Every structure is written in structure tokens, then in C-alpha cells.
Amino acid sequence: MHLKSILIFCALCFFTDTMSEGLNALHIQSFQVLVQNFNNKETVEKVLKYFGIDKEYNYNSEDNTFIRAFKILNFVAGVDKLSDNTRLAEKLDREMVENISTLFSELDIEKDGVIDGSQYNEIRKKCHHYVQRGGLIDDWKENINLKKLYELGDILLELLQYRKKLNGNMFRKIHRNCIVMFIESIKNGVSPKKKYAKYLDNTIYFYIQNRPREWYL
């Protein structure tokens, strides 16, 4: 495995025994990929268990992809789960996620788990206080593509990026392929931490802590 891929993958393993509600970028991406690429109840249960979530989740594989993601993100936002081991990682608290999710649901007329850019802009107008600074609010508005369809996770990730700029915290958005590898390991009953333990020496930790920004997409 290429060193760059190893380091990006290892960043996914940096969950500690700290449990918290809310969602950070790794949570959002992990659970989006889980229900989009692994539409299987057994795999979903394994990943929930990996994150330390004991509460029963009623997973419906018959829902469309976007509805599956919408439901599981709402679920995991409201329960304690393993979190990023750094206190500087940007996170949306439970109330923020619930507020945006409620607005999203009201605008999702077709109830298919997606809204268009103009509807997303309505959410931005009602949630601009989460960003606060005028320049960031303007950037947020300008970067919404009115012709694009957005799912809940897309909006949450974009808000995280702007709050990262506001607070000066970290925003760990990982390449999708690395998240697929992460979930594959859990699915196959191999801890990602153990699978890549031989790479986690001091040198690797050093490079992870000082990784170039372009390693995160």
C-alpha cells in the first residue's frame, strides 16, 4: 500500500474512547458510504458497534440511497459514539443537525432524500447564524449550485467547512476510497487499527499529524 494511502487510512482509525453526540466530517462520510456502498443490515450493525453505538437501529434496506443516509445520520447524531481523538476537530452538535435536518425534511417535497440548490439556499438563509462572519456567509451563498441536487450529508459537510474557517479547527474530509477500505475491514471482522498496526510507528504518527492539506479531498 502506498504511504500516502496508509496515512489517509490511518487517520480514519483515530477514534478514541471519547463518546459524544453530534457529527464530525469522519462520522458523516463514514455513514454516508456505509449505506450507499454496503446496503446490508449486518454490515450496518457491525459499523454501529465499532463506533460504540449500542442503541438498536431499525435499518431499512428498501429505502433509496439518500433516504438511508438521511435516516442514519439523524440517528447517529443523537447518540453517543466514538469521536475523533483531537478536541480541535470541527463538529456539529446534536441541535444543529436536528435543526438542519428538520428544515431539509420540510423542503424535501418528494420525500426522496434530496433537495435542489434553491431549496438548499433557503436552509442557508435560516442557518446563517451558524457561520456568523459576513464574508463566510457570502462565500456559502455563492458556492451553492442552484442546478445541483443535495443530500443532507452534503449540506452538513459544507457547513462544517465554513465553521472550520470560522473557528480555526480541523476539518478531516477523507478520500472516499479510504472510507470504503475502513468499512470493508469492519465488515470482514478485522479492526482497521490492527490491520494497519505495523505502519503506526512514530514516523507514521509524525506524518499524520503534519500531513499536507492536499491529502484531504
Average pLDDT score: 81
Distance between the termini: 19 Å
Instruction: Report the C-alpha radius of gyration, rounded.
Output: 17 Å
Major beta sheet, strand line-up: 1-3
What does the largest sheet look like?
2 strands, antiparallel
Keywords:
217 residues, mainly alpha, two-stranded antiparallel ribbon, 11 helices, 6 strands
Structure write-up:
The chain is mostly helical and 217 residues long. It has two domains: 3-88 and 171-215, no CATH class; 105-167, no CATH class. The chain is built from eleven helices and six strands. It has helices at 3-11, 25-37, 41-50, 65-77, 94-107, 117-127, 134-142, 152-167, 176-187, 192-195, 202-209, and strands at 15-20, 23-24, 81-84, 91-92, 115-116, 149-150. The strands form three sheets. A two-stranded antiparallel ribbon has the order 1-3. The chain has a two-stranded antiparallel ribbon with strand order 2-4. Strands 5-6 form a two-stranded antiparallel ribbon. It is globular. It starts with a helix and ends in an 8-residue tail after the last helix. Mean pLDDT is 81; it is low at 1-9 and 197-217.
Furnish the topology, listing elements before pairings.
Layout: H1 3-11, E1 15-20, E2 23-24, H2 25-37, H3 41-50, H4 65-77, E3 81-84, E4 91-92, H5 94-107, E5 115-116, H6 117-127, H7 134-142, E6 149-150, H8 152-167, H9 176-187, H10 192-195, H11 202-209
Antiparallel strand pairs: 1-3, 2-4, 5-6
